[in-house]
Each structure stands twice: as structure tokens, then as C-alpha cells.
């Protein structure tokens, strides 16, 4: 297709285990003001922001129409606003469509989540399961992920020790990102001894409860120079939904992610992802997902996750240099966090963790149990 | 025109609605959705193989299903396809239509299917809406979507007798329309000579808002299929074209300065209509549009909003109602389907407005088809704190 949209600026607050002193409106306003300051964009009906895309979740906010509570702090008073009620990465795909359609030329994209507000994240996730058959069993994303983890480790030869190494690496990498959640440094032994949450997923294998908010300004190709000297381009997007019942699908198949990635690659004109993409941000809610999704997007061969880790695949291919989802992003906002890291790397603004020669990057995000829904965004400098 | 040129044209090529009812205990949520999806596919002459992207929406806290698109894959048929979930409260249905228009016009997808649903029977509707308010300051004071403020304003402006009659006149007209629509949830068989009795006998919900004037809570689903110009012309004998749409939200606090002429609070309806008409060169909306499917949750709101949506002055909107010009057969029929006041499965409701407007353009509305050619239709959505979405639909690609 060859068409692209620009990300002109990003803003975020630091990931935190519990912003007890901030409401989510307070979390957003800092991001909002930063975007205004960086870009000089206005809300003029002719040339400014006429439409805002937000991302938040009614269940985590415990508010019907969670976007209603943020209308004023995202500038949507007497402007349009649409809420991506799914993994935030899809908001980028939707903003891209809104711009390429010609309906909007500038879109503000903002999201928030205070996971710390809910009494139990698992209780929220349990509500995603059908109320008759699955919910009473206590199904949630964690124990569904655990079934996938066991099956995948078997298939791809991934060991408990390798998962521990991924956790150690994630926490080490996150230390180089000033906006990352501040977690204790751990060693392999400690991870391998951490309590089992849902076999084989240990407590330290699973991302911690996190609060966060972000903002981004997107616009059409022609107008990018009005807002930034260094636009980052979105050139591809694709998503894919898998079956709901676990018995209806092969838990270790990456068919859904491969399909989402394939659509994004076609849009961006990518033939060989491993060679043509220089940095991968993968949505690893649990440690086993990093090699599994790496296979899904084609940076590792199918079924070889264990060997790929052994050969240093994650560092060789610049995977999750800021700690990934595993270090802590709120559920549903991981995709936006992945995209923001790609943006910073593509602009050469990733500080201590800056990788060299990054011209094209991939952000991936999954949601639902066992990655039921997958989406991929391709970004280029 | 503020907007850039639309990248490519988009048309509605398939429509499916379930029967709206207070209790659909015979089906679960995915099964109910499946009914609408099957009807829309049949209407379009397509199968799921032809659909590239599914867009799903409702209001989560009514049924307390977190991220329901995951479970509903069983009924939506989204497995293996792109799937997006967008929600905006009561407006969600028409937001799905706007999003579908954007997704197809962008060139990213040729055929997109939008699904709005609600199964209000499975939750507590007013409890769910009250949850919208700030938990610290407003939640305990909220009455949900039941509000007497519009009746108060109306009566203040036009006097008690005329106002109450206009509201009930509107209600009876909608009931007569609903009687012609086999999908409508409630149709009581009301007659105009019952108006005086109903003003006295219908129980008051809050202020002067009476039970008979408020919408029901319904179960139901609606599915609409959108296609790019090329596909629409290939696949459909009667494509209905999406001309433009606008969304206008406002901050969450209602009437913070109270009812004071010194601080007039502009309505999103008027603002949305003004901007939409301006950029499409519409100077006289009641002449231009042949039919209007309006999201009318209560008859007080409905009569008042006609003034904003049609850019009318003084009491012109009341006269439209009093003279029955909004009836099927009148100058500008409003809600031939019976409207929201007859059926309100919230997540589907605003998509039903688009679907019904499109059916009128196609001439396929059956017993509630208006008896003149329909070339231009308007559909509206309402939600949040008085949020508005408007969509213009056209029979011909000639603007």
C-alpha cells in the first residue's frame, strides 16, 4: 500500500507499582501537557486535533464508560473521542486508519490504567471468561497462560533455567530505562526458587501490578513537519483473533500471531522480518512468551525457542531492550509501551539502552489467555 | 472543508438485527450475536470468508464481562480475522459505524463487519450507568440515564401544558411507529386521545420525566457490513453510501454552573450538526434529509434535540411534533422504527439507528418504510454525558 502515518511525539509517566496519591486523571494530564509542549498542536477545528483516541478499561477503572472520566484531561470537550477497549497497540492501528481514511489528519492518542486500584488483577481477568462454564472454574489469563507455557516449553525445549535468565535480563535492561518500573535486581537462583503461581509460571516469571499513562500525537504524512523534525512512521499494522475455547485450538501454535504479523509485513512491504527489522518489542506478560512470540513474528524458527535463547537470540536481535512487559506495564497498555520504546529507539533517544542502526522496529502485543488476540505494528525512522 | 478528501467511498452492504426483547433467556451472548451476524451475512449474500475485520462494541459493566470480544468470538466469527473493540458508552453502536467507515476508507480493509449488542437482562442497567460517575463526588447522587432536568428546562421555556403534551405526542407517535416494526421491543398500541390521561396517570420517575416517556431496557444485537466502493458495487444491488460522520463529546460534569442564562451550556447536538452541515454544504436540514433515525432515550430529550439537530429556532421543533410532521408520511419522518424509546439494547442501539436509516434508503424497511423516495438519511447516537455522534447516509454517490 505504501501509505504511512507519523508519530510526532510521545509522552509517558514513570511506571509505578501504586500511584496512591494520583487519580488516573492526574496521571494523564502530565502526558497531555508534555505533548502540547513538544508539538505546539492546538484543538482548532480546522487545523488542530478534532479527534482523540483513548485506551482504558471499564473493569480496571471500575467505571462504566471509563473514557468519560478523562474527557477533559485529553482535550475531548466538544471534540471527538473514541476508546480502544482492547490492547492499546490496536489504538495505533485504528488511529492509522482514521488518518489514512482522510477523516482526520491529526489524532491525539492517550491511555491510562491503574492496575493497583483493583483488589485483585486476577479477579478482573476472571471476568473475561464465559460466566457459565469457565468463570466458575477460576479461569483467568494466568492459568490459561500456564497451560500454554508448559506445552510450549515442551515443544521448543525451553527450560526453567532459561526462563529465570530472561527474568534476570529483563530487570537488568529495565534499569537503563528511566520510565520503567523500579524492580529489585534478581539472580537466576532466586527466580528459580520463587513461588509457583500456576505451574510452570513462577511469581517472578509474571509481570507485576503496574500503574501507567501515556500520550502520543499522530498525523498524516503531509503535516508531520508542522509538529516534529523527526517523525517516526507507522507503515504496517495487523491483528488476529484466535478461538476462545482452549480445546478449539493448538495451544502452542503461533498461527494467530503469524497471521497478524503477516498482514503488517505485507502492508509495510517486508519480505524477511529477521533481516529487515532491527529491533523487536514483544509483549511478554510471562517469561515463556518472549521466545514464543519471537517465533511467531519470525525472528526465531518455529519450535526452536530453547536453542534460540541459548544462542543469545534476544540480544542479537535487539529484543525488549527496556525490560519488556515482564518488567511491568499495565495489562492492555503493554502494546503502547512497546511502541513508545520503538519510537525512542528509532529516534536515537533511548539513552543508555540505545541500539545501533535501528531503522525499522516491530511492536507486538497480545491479550486474552494464551495470546488469544495478537497485533503487530511496524515503525520506521 | 476541514477534512481531507475521503480516501475512498464506503457503503453498507449488509444489515442484521435480532428481535429486541426484555428477556432473551433462550440464548447466551455469543448466540444472540450470532443471530444478527447470520442475518447480516444473508442480507449481503456473503459468508464469514468474505469478512476481513470484525469490530465489536458494547458497555462492559452491564453484563460484567471483561473484554467480551474474546468470549464472543464464538458468535462473531472473528476467529482468524482482524478484530478490534471500540467503545464509547451509549454512542458505541454508531461509533462502530464511524470506525468501520474509517477502516474501510483507509484502504486497510475492503470488508468490515460491525457488531453492537447488549443483554441488559443479565445486569442492572441503572446501576451500571450510575457507575459512570466519579466514585467520590457524584456516584451517590446519580440517577443514571433518568434525568428530569430537560423536562424542567422545557417547561420553563414553553409552559407546562404545551410542553407535557408535546412530550406525550412524541411518545405516542413513536409507539405507533414501533407497532409497524416487528423487531421493536415495546409497542403498547397508544392513541393520541390517551395523552391527557397518560400525563396524569403515568408514574413519575424523576421530576416530570414519566415512566411512559422513558426507554425500556432491552436485549438484542445488530450487525452491519461495510465495503469499499469497488466491492460494494460488485456485491450489492442497493449499497447505501456513508457520506460523513462527526463525534462530539463533552466533559463529565453536568451543568456545573446550574441553570443560569449568564452561563449558557451549548448542546453537543447543535455543535455536531452545525459542523457536519457546514462542511457538507447543507443549509436546510429538514429539506435535505428524507428521514432521521435519532437516538431518543426519552421523549423530553427527543423533542428538544430536534431543535438542535435540525437547527431550528423558537418553537419550530414543537410544531413539527404537534403537526405530526415527524410521523411516517410527514415532512421529515423521525424514527419510523419506533426509535430507542421502543427498544434500547444499549450497545446495539446506536448501530440500529444507522441500520434503520440504511434500510429506509434501500426501501427495505417493510411496514415502517416511509411512503416517498429516501435519498438522504441522518442517524444519531447519544451517550456519555450528553455526547453526540451524527452520520449522513446517501442513496447516490453524487455529492
- In N-to-C order, the SSE pattern of chain B is EHEHHEHEHHHHEEEHEHHEHHHHEE
Instruction: Summarize model confidence as the mean pLDDT of chain B.
Output: 94
CATH homolog superfamily of the domain at 5-119 and 209-226 in chain A? Thiolase/Chalcone synthase
CATH class type of the domain at 5-119 and 209-226 in chain A: Alpha Beta
In short:
With 381 residues, chain A is α/β, with parallel strands linked by helices.
Describe this structure in words.
The complex is a heterodimer of chains A (381) and B (399). With 381 residues, chain A is α/β, with parallel strands linked by helices. Chain A has a domain of 133 residues: Peroxisomal Thiolase, Chain A, domain 1 (3-Layer(aba) Sandwich). Helices cover 33% and strands 19% of the residues of chain A. Chain A is built from 13 helices and eleven strands. In chain A, strands 3-2-4-7-1-8-11-10-9 form a nine-stranded mixed beta sheet, with helices on both faces. In chain A, strands 5-6 form a two-stranded antiparallel sheet. In chain A, helix 3 crosses helix 13. In chain A, 62% of the residues are buried. Chain B is α/β, with parallel strands linked by helices and 399 residues long. Chain B has a domain of 122 residues: Peroxisomal Thiolase, Chain A, domain 1, CATH 3.40.47.10. Helix content of chain B is 37%, strand content 18%. Chain B has a nine-stranded mixed beta sheet with strand order 3-2-4-7-1-8-11-10-9. In chain B, a hairpin with a 3-residue loop joins strand 10 and strand 11. The interface between A and B is large, with 70 and 69 residues. Strand 3 of chain A pairs antiparallel with strand 3 of chain B.
Features:
heterodimer; A: 381 residues; alpha/beta; Peroxisomal Thiolase, Chain A, domain 1; 9-stranded mixed β-sheet; two-stranded antiparallel sheet; 11 strands; B: 399 residues; globular
Amino acid at each position: 500500500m505504501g501509505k504511512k502515518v507519523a508519530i510526532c511525539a510521545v509522552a509517558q509517566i514513570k511506571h509505578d507499582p501504586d500511584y496512591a496519591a494520583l487519580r488516573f486523571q492526574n496521571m494523564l494530564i502530565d502526558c497531555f501537557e508534555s505533548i502540547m509542549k513538544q508539538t505546539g498542536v492546538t484543538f482548532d477545528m480546522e487545523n488542530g486535533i478534532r479527534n482523540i483516541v483513548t485506551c482504558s478499561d471499564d473493569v480496571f477503572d471500575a467505571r462504566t464508560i471509563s473514557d468519560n472520566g478523562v474527557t477533559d484531561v485529553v482535550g475531548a470537550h466538544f471534540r471527538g473521542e473514541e476508546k480502544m477497549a482492547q490492547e492499546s497497540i490496536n489504538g495505533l492501528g485504528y488511529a492509522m486508519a482514521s488518518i489514512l481514511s482522510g477523516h482526520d489528519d491529526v489524532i491525539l492518542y492517550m491511555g491510562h490504567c491503574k492496575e493497583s486500584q483493583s483488589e485483585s488483577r486476577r479477579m478482573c481477568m476472571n471476568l473475561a471468561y464465559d460466566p457459565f462454564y469457565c468463570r466458575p472454574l477460576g479461569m483467568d489469563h494466568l492459568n490459561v497462560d500456564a497451560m500454554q507455557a508448559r506445552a510450549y516449553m515442551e515443544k521448543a525445549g525451553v527450560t526453567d533455567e532459561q526462563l529465570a535468565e530472561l527474568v534476570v535480563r529483563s530487570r537488568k535492561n529495565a534499569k537503563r530505562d528511566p520510565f520503567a518500573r523500579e524492580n529489585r535486581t534478581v539472580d537466576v537462583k532466586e527466580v528459580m526458587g520463587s513461588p509457583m503461581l500456576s505451574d510452570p509460571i513462577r511469581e517472578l516469571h509474571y509481570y507485576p501490578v503496574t500503574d501507567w499513562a501515556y500520550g502520543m500525537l499522530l498525523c498524516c504524512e503531509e503535516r508531520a513537519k508542522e509538529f516534529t523534525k523527526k517523525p517516526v512512521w507507522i507503515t504496517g499494522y495487523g491483528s488476529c483473533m484466535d478461538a476462545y475455547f482452549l480445546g478449539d485450538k493448538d495451544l502452542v501454535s503461533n498461527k494467530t500471531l503469524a497471521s497478524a504479523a503477516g498482514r503488517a509485513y505485507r502492508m509495510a512491504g517486508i519480505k524477511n522480518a529477521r533481516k529487515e527489522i532491527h529491533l523487536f518489542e514483544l509483549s511478554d506478560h510471562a517469561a515463556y512468551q518472549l521466545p514464543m512470540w519471537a517465533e511467531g513474528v519470525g525472528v526465531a524458527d518455529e519450535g526452536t525457542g530453547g536453542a534460540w535463547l541459548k544462542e543469545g537470540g534476544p540480544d542479537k536481535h535487539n529484543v525488549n531492550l527496556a525490560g519488556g512487559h515482564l518488567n511491568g506495564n499495565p495489562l492492555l497498555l503493554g502494546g503502547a509501551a512497546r511502541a513508545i520504546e520503538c519510537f525512542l529507539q528509532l529516534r536515537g533517544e533511548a539513552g543508555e539502552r540505545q541500539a545501533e542502526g535501528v531503522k525499522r522496529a516491530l511492536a507486538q502485543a497480545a491479550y486474552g489467555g494464551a495470546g488469544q488476540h495478537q497485533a503487530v505494528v511496524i515503525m520506521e525512522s | 472543508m476541514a477534512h481531507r478528501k475521503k480516501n475512498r467511498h464506503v457503503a453498507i452492504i449488509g444489515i442484521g438485527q435480532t428481535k429486541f426483547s426484555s428477556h432473551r433467556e433462550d440464548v447466551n451472548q455469543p448466540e444472540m450475536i450470532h443471530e444478527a451476524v447470520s442475518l447480516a451475512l444473508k442480507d449481503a449474500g456473503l459468508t464469514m470468508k468474505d469478512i476481513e475485520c470484525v469490530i465489536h462494541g458494547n458497555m462492559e459493566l452491564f453484563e460484567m464481562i471483561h473484554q467480551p470480544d474474546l468470549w464472543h468470538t464464538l458468535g462473531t466469527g472473528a476467529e482468524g480475522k482482524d478484530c478490534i473493540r471500540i467503545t464509547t458508552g451509549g454512542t458505541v453502536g454508531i461509533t462502530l459505524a464511524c470506525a468501520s467507515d474509517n477502516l474501510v476508507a483507509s484502504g486497510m480493509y475492503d470488508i468490515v463487519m460491525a457488531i453492537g449488542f447488549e443483554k441488559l437482562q443479565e445486569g442492572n442497567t441503572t446501576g451500571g450507568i450510575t457507575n459512570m460517575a466519579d466514585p467520590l463526588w457524584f456516584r451517590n447522587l446519580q440517577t443514571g440515564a433518568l434525568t428530569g432536568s430537560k423536562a424542567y428546562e422545557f417547561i420553563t421555556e414553553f409552559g407546562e401544558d404545551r410542553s407535557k403534551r408535546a412530550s406525550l405526542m412524541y411518545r405516542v407517535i413513536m409507539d405507533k411507529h414501533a407497532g409497524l416494526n416487528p423487531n421493536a421491543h415495546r409497542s403498547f398500541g397508544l392513541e393520541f386521545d390517551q395523552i391527557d390521561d397518560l400525563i396524569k396517570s403515568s408514574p413519575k420517575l424523576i421530576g416530570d420525566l414519566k415512566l411512559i416517556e422513558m426507554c425500556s431496557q432491552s436485549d438484542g444485537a445488530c450487525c452491519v457490513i461495510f465495503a469499499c466502493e469497488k466491492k460494494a458495487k460488485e456485491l450489492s444491488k442497493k449499497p447505501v453510501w456513508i457520506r460523513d460522520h462527526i463525534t462530539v463529546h463533552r466533559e463529565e460534569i453536568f451543568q456545573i454552573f446550574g441553570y443560569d442564562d449568564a452561563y449558557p451550556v451549548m448542546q453537543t447536538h447543535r455543535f455536531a450538526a452545525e459542523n457536519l452541515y457546514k462542511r457538507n454544504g447543507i443549509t436546510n436540514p429538514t429539506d435535505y434529509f428524507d428521514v432521521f433515525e435519532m437516538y431518543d432515550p426519552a421523549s423530553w430529550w427527543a423533542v428538544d434535540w430536534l431543535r438542535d439537530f435540525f437547527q431550528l429556532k423558537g418553537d419550530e421543533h414543537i410544531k413539527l411534533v404537534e403537526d405530526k410532521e415527524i410521523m411516517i408520511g410527514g415532512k421529515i419522518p423521525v424514527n419510523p422504527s419506533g426509535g430507542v424509546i421502543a427498544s434500547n439494547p444499549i450497545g446495539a442501539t446506536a448501530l440500529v439507528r444507522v441500520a434503520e436509516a440504511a434500510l429506509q434508503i434501500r426501501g427495505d424497511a417493510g411496514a415502517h418504510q416511509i411512503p416517498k423516495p429516501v435519498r438522504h438519511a441522518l442517524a444519531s447516537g447519544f451517550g456519555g454525558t450528553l455526547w453526540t455522534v451524527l452520520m449522513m447516509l446517501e442513496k447516490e454517490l453524487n455529492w
